Amino acid sequence: MRRYETKKALDFVADIKRAGKSCIFIDHNIFHDDPVADRIVVLDRGAVAGEFMKGELTLDELLDRLYLVARTGGLGARRGGASDGRGS
Asked: What's the pTM?
């Protein structure tokens, strides 16, 4: 998206949030998601690799987790191979 299109989309999501409603915003740029997200769900090849509430991690920590998912396909396995989203 062009810059003005991105701003328009983010403003739209912010308006939905102010109205007390929810939406699912899918983006590949965490810098777009961070200002408007209350919760971030990380997907890897269609599977949930982690889920974080806003403020649970700094942006740098979240980026580290995203790089880990990109390299390994997960954040750390627990029973059954599912990720707990916290790297443990």
From this structure: 0.69
43: its two tokens: 């997907």
SS3 9: helix
Domain coordinates in residue numbering, the chain: 1-37, 40-74
Task: Round to whole Å and give the CA distance between 21 and 6.
Answer: 20
Residue 65 CB burial class (10 angstroms; 0-12, 13-18, ≥19): buried
Provide the Cα torsion 64, 65, 67, 70; round to 10°. 180
Q: Are strands 39-44 and 47-53 parallel, antiparallel or unpaired?
A: antiparallel
Look at residue 4 in the predicted model and tell me its pLDDT: 86
Q: What is the rounded radius of gyration, in angstroms, for the C-alpha atoms of the chain?
A: 14
Give the chain's mean pLDDT: 82
> pLDDT tens, 59-88?
999 999 989 988 888 887 433 344 445 444
